[in-house]
Specification:
heterodimer, A: 5-stranded antiparallel sheet, 9 helices, about 40% helix, about 20% strand, B: 4 helices, about 0% strand
């Protein structure tokens, strides 16, 4: 088999996008990013060297942390630029075709689906909300509420000076119960924030929580979510997210965005 | 991005009207896990890459902090960066074991629907760290 003559890296899909908006935009391979039109759809692509972007070499690049960061950021930068020009469907990293013609085939085969998705995303943007809670602080706050049920409150105190085995076991049980209660309260804090934000968004997606033991952050991450909101109401949504997080007892909240609608590209109507 | 721990509620603010450079974890989460998935002509196994990013989450926190201090020497040395990766994986394993020993096997901080991906990759992580 002959080596492939070309390779086309796909960044995103848009509608009726001309080349003018992309002029000067450089992609992963350092080349000019191009608008590749097929009926109403425009794929934003770059011609890359098939020798440099072969499956094996790409795999190697993406499993090297420094290179992965470079590729991911450049891909993201182009997607951001495209999303600034109009509704855009981002492609997953490393979607590469052997020719422009293969991309056109994809566009014509799935035109209806892509057009529906782009219509749904019009004038909307993705907002990221992450929140952290301190289980111990939530637990303490709950215990000081007189109205709150306190299943382990009575276990926490007895026998601090008592060195008997029974007292030790009682203290240990109380500690474990308190820890479990803190975890439960933290989980509920995340659920509360999410439940309050869902009605304010056109759609939402929950991402995996980050393990704060891995990230070195204090507390527990209790929410890592993306919300699709009307672009015009993004500042208001961000304000609501912070207010809701404070009310739910989160100790920290990070609102990120506007993002291209990565989290809503694949299953637009779900 | 470094996030200082502050005890007051919801003290951290990131205004969408002034986007900061997005954090690497947030970008990777989106470009690797989200977006339109179509079968391109060149097949890349992103499962391997996703596995890597889970380990990277550990590394990234310290990488970004270090970068703010102007320390980035490992970025120009592939040996060091893969050595750091292995250390990160080993560190993660150790932390998990300690966590499991401390908390029992109840996994009390896991919540349905939130961390399926993290939980699901644990066996692969173990396998790859041998």
């Amino acid at each position: 088999m002959n080596p492939p003559a070309g390779a086309t890296w796909v960044y995103a899909l848009s509608r009726n996008l001309g080349q003018a908006g992309l002029d000067g935009l450089r992609g992963i391979g350092g080349g000019q990013v191009r608008a590749l039109a097929s009926s109403q759809l425009t794929a934003v692509v770059e011609s890359v060297d098939p020798g440099v972007f072969s499956a094996e070499k790409l795999q190697d690049r993406l499993t090297d942390p420094a290179d992965l960061e470079l590729v991911a950021r450049r891909h993201h930068d182009v997607v951001v630029a495209v999303a600034a020009l109009g509704p855009a469907l981002p492609f997953r990293l490393a979607t590469v075709y052997l020719s422009d013609e293969r991309v056109r085939t994809l566009l014509s085969e799935r035109c209806d689906e892509f057009c529906r998705a782009l219509g749904w995303l019009a004038d909307r943007t993705e907002c990221g909300v992450k929140a952290w809670a301190d289980p111990d602080a939530l637990n303490r706050a709950r215990r000081t509420q007189p109205s709150a049920r306190s299943p382990d409150g009575q276990l926490a105190r007895p026998g601090l000076a008592d060195h008997s085995g029974a007292a030790y076991l009682a203290r240990r049980r109380a500690e474990l119960a308190a820890r479990a209660e803190g975890q439960r309260l933290a989980a509920r804090c995340g659920e509360e924030i999410h439940a309050s934000l869902v009605p304010l968004a056109a759609a939402s997606r929950l991402h995996p929580l980050h393990d704060t033991r891995a990230t070195g952050e204090a507390g527990l991450q209790v929410l890592n979510a993306a919300y699709l909101v009307d672009s015009a109401s993004l500042p208001a949504f961000a304000g609501s997210a912070r207010a809701v997080a404070a009310r739910a007892g989160a100790c920290e909240v990070a609102v990120t965005g506007p993002w291209p609608a990565y989290s809503f590209a694949d299953r637009p109507d779900a | 991005m470094s996030r200082e721990w502050r005890p007051t509620p919801a003290s951290r603010e990131r205004l969408p009207t002034h986007p900061e450079p997005a954090s690497l974890v947030d970008i990777l989460e989106r470009v690797l896990d989200k977006g339109i998935v179509v079968a391109g002509d060149i097949r890349v196994d992103l499962l391997d890459v996703e596995l890597l990013t889970i380990r990277l989450r550990l590394l990234i926190a310290s990488v970004e902090r270090a970068r703010e201090m102007g320390i980035d020497w490992w970025e120009h040395d592939p040996t060091l960066s893969s050595a750091a990766r292995d250390l990160a994986a080993e560190n993660q394993l150790l932390r998990e074991r300690i966590g499991a020993l401390e908390a029992g096997s109840s996994g009390a901080n896991r919540r349905d629907g939130h961390d399926g991906a993290t939980a699901g990759t644990a066996p692969r992580r173990r396998k790859s760290a041998e």
